[in-house]
Amino acid sequence: MSPTSSQSKPYMALLPCSFLFLLMLCLANAQPSPGYYISAKHSPISFYSGYNTLWGPQHQTVSPDQSSVTIWLDKSSGSGFKSRQPYRNGYFAASIKLQAGYTAGVNTAFYLSNNEAHPGFHDEVDMEFLGTIPGKPYTLQTNVYVMGSGDGRIVGREMRFHLWFDPTVDFHNYAILWNPDEIVYFVDDIPIRQYLRKNDATYPRRPMWAYGTIWDASPWATENGKYKADYRYQPFVSRFTKFLIGGCSAFASPNCQPVPSSPTGYGLSNMQYMAMRWVQQNYLVYNYCTNSTKDHSLTPEC
Ligand SMILES: *[C@@H]1O[C@H](CO)[C@@H](O)[C@H](O)[C@H]1NC(C)=O
């Protein structure tokens, strides 16, 4: 063996090694399959069969075929829509595309609430897209409120995520499943958060309506209020399409069956659970349960 050939050996060995390493990195960061596509179990409905304009009608357009709605925020107003019916459980999804560029302070929300029926002690299940500044990613905030501020304290259960794609480029499916056992948030059918019913005090049980809104949340939305809505960049536009609703309206017969989160019925499948773990390991940026300055006496689920 010549000195040159022996020297080349470690170099030769490094090539396949680094290739394998890169391949493993890629695999580790690839979007996993949830194995079950809950959105495919439902057919898109027309906007007006599920929803009505709630506020800011002049800041909202429905496509002629009623498949899509565009809502926007400018200096004069935001806009919102609300489901025609209250639901006692359900699967609520929409494909949403967000605005690129400077969107700090802007909050695009898709959520369930009964705040109009129970002001001051309402329940709420939120997905909120928190606008951002160029070069920084959107944050998807999920939250669960139970009985609102009924005891004088508002107990938020925020979990915030970044996404594994740019939500301003394409429409993606975002969904809230709320059934008697659990709340599951899905992004493109991947569960990102599961909130189990552990007891009645920490679980929303009264009928809720579904909402979509765009509004100015400058005091807190972007880096805790550091960046505010800047109306030089108005209008701030969010697009919703492929509305899916499953489950039981508040007026449905008692035989109505809630939507299960997985093919097995109760709870997530192993594959869904693995996919959720991938999201939480890679994209979870805030979890209320691990915030040590928070008073956890009212969040025993932590
Ligand atoms: C942690 O909880 C405190 C008290 O509720 C809150 O003021 C603070 O904003 C939370 N931290 C983050 C990063 O959200």
From TrEMBL:
Top-level taxon of origin: Eukaryota
Any idea where the GH16 domain is? 4-240
The record ties this protein, via InterPro entries, to: Beta-glucanase-like (IPR000757), Beta-glucanase/XTH (IPR044791), ConA-like_dom_sf (IPR013320), XET_C (IPR010713), XTH (IPR016455)
Query: GO terms for molecular function, please?
Result: hydrolase activity, hydrolyzing O-glycosyl compounds; xyloglucan:xyloglucosyl transferase activity
- Signal peptide residues are 1-30
On modification after translation, the UniProt record reads: Contains at least one intrachain disulfide bond essential for its enzymatic activity.
Record-annotated active site: E124, E128
Gene Ontology BP terms = cell wall biogenesis; cell wall organization; xyloglucan metabolic process
Root EC class: transferase
What EC number(s) has UniProt assigned to this enzyme? 2.4.1.207
Q: Which family does it belong to?
A: Belongs to the glycosyl hydrolase 16 family.
As for what it does, the entry says: Catalyzes xyloglucan endohydrolysis (XEH) and/or endotransglycosylation (XET). Cleaves and religates xyloglucan polymers, an essential constituent of the primary cell wall, and thereby participates in cell wall construction of growing tissues.
Q: What is this protein called?
A: Xyloglucan endotransglucosylase/hydrolase
